[in-house]
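User: Could you check the structure of this?
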Amino acid sequence: MPLTDPVKLTFPRGLSGYDPMRRLLIVLLAVAGLGAGAAIAWWSLRPGETPPEASEDDPRITFPAASRNVRPGVQYVGDAVCAQCHQTEVASYTRHPMGRSLGPTADLQPVEQYGTRARDPFEVDGFRFEVERNGSRMIHRQIRPGADGAAPVRLECDVHFAVGSGARGRTYLVERDGRLFQSPISWFSSKGIWDLTPGFRALEQFGRPADAKCLFCHCNAVEPVAHALNQYRPPLFRGHAIGCERCHGPGELHVGSPTRGDGSDETIVNPGRLEPALRDAVCEQCHLQGEARVVRRGRELFDYRPGLPLHLFLSVFTKPGELTGGAAVGGHAEQMRDSRCFQASGGRLGCISCHDPHSVPGPQKKIAHYRDRCLQCHADRGCSLAPAERRQRSPADSCIDCHMPRAESPIAHTAAADHRIVRRPSPPAPPRPPRPGEIPLRHFHDELVEPHDPEVSRDLGVALAEVGLNNPQALRAVAPHALPLLDAAVVAHSDDVAAREARGYTRWFVGRPADGLMDMEAVLGQVPERESALTYAAALATALGRDGEAIGYWRSAVAVNPWTSIYRSRLAKLLTDRGDWAGALVECEAALRINPFDNDARALRSRCLREPGVGTSPR
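Assistant: Sure, the predicted structure tokens are below.
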């Protein structure tokens, strides 16, 4: 039987409508673009450790950088050391949104409100969500009313970390044995309300993994456990919010040598003194979102250091403007690249031309600040409108009100202000669908990479697979482009587990499950603990009727991550199919302790308890 819909064939016994396993696979597939190196040791060394040996082609060694602190052996020192000499800058930066990007809920300045006016509690899809602040504790609670007079089903968690400065909102993280999960409850500052976290469905509860790719742009440093989706080595964070050295590079050399009087210093990076592409790369490490960010083969997610080209570490792919409508959609870097101001500046215009990374102008100074930035280039040719007409459009005579209009968007990681710096605001053009055979992605740094570089082609193959996974029909459409690129990548480097895994799930989605499972088996032959490959292999083995193998894969997934309830409930279903009622009951009980709203696990548990000899349960 051909595999025309991998989700339906793999999980024929799941809930109709919402299938939590499908949602999990979407999350896992999205992470697959991180590559094999995305979850290995990060740059913060423990006492007595030596830096990892760098490969001969490591850009941190080979690139002719002006600053010596790009080299892999130079260590980071932390913001407290920077503050010893740069007190003013550090004090100002702590009030900057980047300086408040993440922190313990117990320590953060509260921006949230509570009570009915702030929609605390609120209801979605038959669930009730509550937030409680009890001293330094913040508790998130999810409740489903019991049916026919039964007791309500409740799940509550202490949330340990808040993500976001609070300017637009905050989301929250729960820590379980070194694993980070996202709460389904978020605070939305512009509306002053609590609501469901964007992209969540109520049934997901506290089970969405917070992966390293997400934390990269919100925290200063983490050390992921190799091949796990969301597990990190203690201490969990090496500094919470984005720190000084994320933009200036590691400070070990700088601390040990005096600064030169002429303003140049080879021991530290000053982004303002870098050539345009390297200057912009410092900001693009986080503010260039793209449709897909693929870690280059042989690199690691956290390898990039300021002063080096970003494209040597990450391949970032975006949609051509005509496929998005060219409007205020997407991130800051993508929009600015399309602006006439940027294109005509010859590299002079960059992010820090307008934004001071150490401070944000207050409300009373904001208009004047940005007007001054505009006049740096437009002093001799100002606004063509008469002052009276300008003030009719913007009473404060604000340049950015007209040329960078704001649009609040519920979509995460989109720019609030239109960074295309349009001459006249206009409604967006309708997006054009991809033409038959058209590749819907382009490399953001296409002017810096060789178009036929096999490594860039490999990255494009991974990116196409990643982008298509949210829509199986779209993945089938791009598969003819992705599969040849991934085939070539695997032939060239058989140990490229990211490319092989991407090829495996692409084969699965185009009706080749046996080939897909072969790829997952090959990946697990190299890295048996790779969590995403274990889940793909389990699902594929189930689709192929190889339940014994699927049970083994689910058991391994549970061993790698015992805090994901879906792994246990899928394992329980396969055990019941084999008549192992006692084993299935153990897994159902464990799944329900993690997620009491798991309807599949609850139904299976009841069935297990009806079997002779299984016994009763205290639940």
